[in-house]
Amino acid sequence: MSESNSFVKGSWERFRQTSFYKMARFITNSASVALLITAALFLYQEYEERDRADKIINNLQDISKDMVKVQSGISTRYLGIFPNYIEEANHLLKGCKDRDSIIIFEDVLYYGFLSRPEAFVEMNKLLLSHADGGGTVTIVYYDEDGRTFHRMIREEFISPSLYATMERDRRTSSVSQDNGVSLKIRMAEDSLRCKKYFSITQKSDTSSFRKTIERYQASLVSVCDSSLSPDVIETCRQIDSVKNYWLGGKTPSKVDFFDIEDMYRAISKIMVTLYHAHGIELLPLDEYLTMCCWLAGDCAVLAFPSKWASDEIGFFSQDPAFTRYITAMLAGARGSVYED
What we know:
Blueprint: H1 2-16, H2 19-73, E1 76-81, H3 86-94, E2 101-105, H4 117-132, E3 136-142, H5 147-157, H6 163-172, H7 174-177, H8 183-204, H9 206-217, H10 230-247, H11 257-277, E4 281-285, E5 292-296, E6 299-304, E7 313-317, H12 320-333
């Protein structure tokens, strides 16, 4: 056994002295070194790539910050469609100085209370606080007893495809042709036609009307909190009462044009009472506005309506030209001529 082990050991020693073994050992050692070098190069390249990626990300972040600065410096920028820009109007009002004048042109005094009630409540809180603190607030709006207010409701709730038929009805009406008939009688007559075509519109789009009425019947008081003045909370309660009076308990198919029109008119009167109690100047109009706007200091939020677009589109502007234009509009609403 010992002779056998000695033979094996001797053979292995002789093999280790051969050129083949030395070459194999050299190749093995070289491969290990090459593997280590390759691994080191890979790790270095990975580090370089990660460092390059970090630099690119940092550069993009710097560019993004610069873009924000550029955007804030642009005089006019797009805000979005109704009602998304109402929050921007509130942000504008929050930045008012105590003696800044706030000028508002809006079609209705309850602007946004159905679509964005929390923003409506916040805006009223800001306006009343500014007025109570000695600031000037002026609101130009559609007179709830005027024909423009009535037309606005008509255009909102009756399908445009029925307008031509309604016009033919108006032309054939003996009352409408009598120039001696009072405006109130004309409006009442038109409301009767509106009731008829409102019903037609309603039947053609029952699902949409059901969702609309359900949204109208939702509570406004729920968005009020303890930070609001008692009269704002009371105003919300009154608006809820008005909605419940005209719409409460009725299925969508039972709600008619008079319900909608009378509800809106009553809500507008509630807002008139609230604003007058706080010394806010109200200028009712009976003609269409070219835009709605909220001007505070040198900045404004503008909303442009269009019968061809789905909703008003809003912009923020600090362009002095808009300040002059809105001031000119206010002078016109007061019946005077504006001079630049």
